[in-house]
Amino acid sequence: MIFTRKYHKSVKKSEILTKNLQPPASAPLNPEQAYASQLEQLQSMGFSDRARNLAALTATLGDLNGAVERLLNSP
Questions:
Q1: Rounded to whole angstroms, how far apart are CA atoms 44 and 37?
Q2: Which residue intervals define the domain UBA in the entry (predicted)?
Q3: Where in the sequence is the domain holding 51, given as residue range(s)?
Q4: pLDDT: is 27 or 35 the higher one?
Q5: Contacts of 39 by beta carbon, 8 Å cutoff, 6+ apart
Q6: Each residue of 36-70: pLDDT tens digit?
């Protein structure tokens, strides 16, 4: 009986932890959607290669300044 309770508590904890690791249902999964405003800003700054811009934003998790730095320092 004691073992069953401990196991049950352990299972509940792992279910809760697993739930917390999943992204929210409303989060956009497409990087192009997630970074739409940053892509527009990069375009307005003169960075016209959308694929490179998206790669830089993805690598910097959407950080515009980091993406600009990355674009300026890459060949």
A1: 11
A2: 28-74
A3: 39-75
A4: 35
A5: 32, 50, 53, 54, 57
A6: 999 999 999 999 999 999 999 999 999 999 999 99
Which amino acid would we find at residue 44?
A: S
**Cα–Cα distance measured from residue 47 to residue 11, given in angstroms and rounded to the nearest whole number:** 50
65 inside domain: yes
Q: Which residue has the higher pLDDT, 22 or 70?
A: 70
Which pTM value belongs to this model? Answer: 0.63
Residues present in the chain in total: 75
Q: Render the burial of 36-58: b for 16+ CB within 10 Å, e for the rest.
A: eebbebbeeeebeeeeebbbbbe
> Alpha-carbon distance 54 to 31, whole Å?
7
For the chain, the 3-state helix, strand and coil shares in percent, each to the nearest 5, are 70, 0, 30
Domain holding 56: CATH number?
1.10.8
